[in-house]
Amino acid sequence: MKSGVRLKLLRRTLRGRRILAQLVREIKVPRLQPEGQIEDTRTIDLVASLVMACPNLERLVGFYPIYSHCFDRLTYALSTRSRLKEHVWIIGENAAITERSLKQLPPGLMDNRQAEDFLHFHDSWKSLSTLFLCSQKQGILERDVFVQALHLLPALQHLCISSFDVDDFDDMTLQSLPPLQSLRLQDLEGITFWGLSEFSRTRAAECIRQLSLVNLDITYLSAISNLFLHLKDMNRFTLVQESSPEVAAGDLVFQPVVASQGLQYIHWDILLPGSANRNLASSIQAGGFPNLRTIRALSDHDGLLQSLCRPRVQVLQASDKYSKAYRTADEGLPGSLGRTVFAARKLAQQRIEDARNSPKFRVVIEEDGVVQEMFDIQGYMGTVGSKVAYNLDSDVQGSDSALIDFPDLLSGTKEVTPRDGCTGMWNASHPAGKKWWNHTERFRYRPVDLHRFF
After folding, report:
1. Coil/strand/helix, residue 144
2. Which of 257, 348, 254 is nearest to 296 (CA)?
3. Nearest alpha carbon to residue 381 among 353, 362, 405
């Protein structure tokens, strides 16, 4: 069976049965190209025709071709779906823009036609609530286009922006964001601790409930403190970076250093040792997070954060022993903690075992001043009675990384488990023979929920 035949059969069915087509809310497109290979025009046109056959479509899942500021039928087809609720923009390199960038500085690298076309795609998306914008291969989307496009979406609640350079997205662009419930900022060179502090005071930030800051290299802890202070409704916070945000020299330090009354979940991953883990731990001890229920800390140097959570008997999972990261994790080298959940679980389990081998209490039974018996009660890692759980599970089951990322989304969640593959054997009894039922092996799809990014 040739590639794309199933989509063509589905398209024929939907075109022939309009009432059925009106009921379709979500389309999952199978992987038609090898991973890493750019989708050809025929594949994009085929998916576009399928989208056009579903007037009430809300989601297109698993198929995110690169948009290079050139017309393609799929982008146009999606722009006509007025009930669309989520969309992923992967902005790629455009030859004309690249050529202009060699002769002039931004802004103005996108011409008027390119900017108008991109903005026009958003005109009908009055129901769009989730939007992803990611630059790939030097993709450019200038500041003014950013701001105008986001303000064309009245229902926008969840926004993820990733990998744009300082000329496209910076502190000033951040201040212009519309009110949101969830925001993820990732790999953005133009975002500074000053911009985050100022953003925390804007009206747009007041409604944020979930905030993720990934690889922004925040210098000072005061930016995080301001976010916690002003974002009253925030219940979930993610911070991932290599360097440790420190208290600025000369600043007065009071406990708790950081505090949030409503925060319930923290993903805290500071790769290199510093004072950030210590400041967070002391703030928790000082009652700065009364509603905190879960901490996920992969780079928990010295187990400071684990010691504040409820004791656990077992952190390791049965599959961890097959991981290379698990076998090579080295607790003895400062800063050697990787960002793999397997290595983090091994080190956490080691701390549990070390505490268990050290007696926590000794019970002595005396009678008439004579010691009759002594019992040692094993120790434990954690704080009895703590309301905080220590979690080292990954967002995507089986992933090396705890935090879900764009490769998990763009790779089709690795639909490549040989034992899960299907070649059409279930229909082998068909009288037309193998040539009729046999097709290229396809693998079971494991969906990626876009809301897990926040």
Report:
1. helix
2. 348
3. 353
If we measure between CA atoms, which residue out of 264, 265, 244, 255 comes closest to residue 288? 255
Q: 25: which DSSP letter? A: -
Rounded Cα distance between 184 and 80, Å, is 27
Nearest partner of 260 among 303, 302, 200, 300, judged by Cα: 200
pLDDT in tens, 279-330: 999 999 999 999 999 999 999 988 999 999 999 989 888 877 776 666 665 5
Residues 6+ apart with CB under 8 A from 315: 345, 348, 349, 352, 390, 392
pTM: 0.87
Instruction: Give pLDDT tens digits for 402-437.
Output: 999 988 888 754 444 445 566 667 677 667 776 666
Q: Which residue is listed with tokens 């995507």?
A: 396
Which residues does residue 94 pair with via DSSP β-bridges, in sequence order? none
- C-alpha closest to that of 268 among 347, 214, 188: 214
CB neighbours (10 Å) of residue 382? 20
51 vs 36, which has greater pLDDT?
51
Out of 204-213, 332-341, 368-377, pick the least confident.
332-341
Tokens encoding 275: 């004072």
**Average of per-residue pLDDT across 216-238:** 95
Phi, psi of 295 (to 5 degrees): -125, 130
Q: Which of 269, 257, 313 is nearest to 405 (CA)?
A: 269
- Report the alpha-carbon angle 47-49-50, nearest 5: 65
3 state SS of 211: strand
| 416 token code pair | 């490549």
* The two three-digit tokens of residue 213, written as one number: 């800051």
pLDDT value of position 327 = 61
Closest CA to 126 of 98, 152, 99, 157: 152
Residue type, position 346, single letter: K
Specify which of 34-48, 74-88, 102-116, 417-431 reaches the highest per-range mean pLDDT: 74-88
Neighbours of 174 (CB within 10 A): 23
The rounded Cα 204 to chain-centroid distance in angstroms is 21
Look at residue 184 and give its three-state secondary structure.
Answer: strand
Q: Which helix (H) or strand (E) holds 173?
A: helix 171-175
pLDDT at 325: 64
Spatial distance between the Cα atoms of 16 and 119, rounded to a whole number of angstroms: 33
CA angle 211, 215, 220 (to 5 degrees): 80
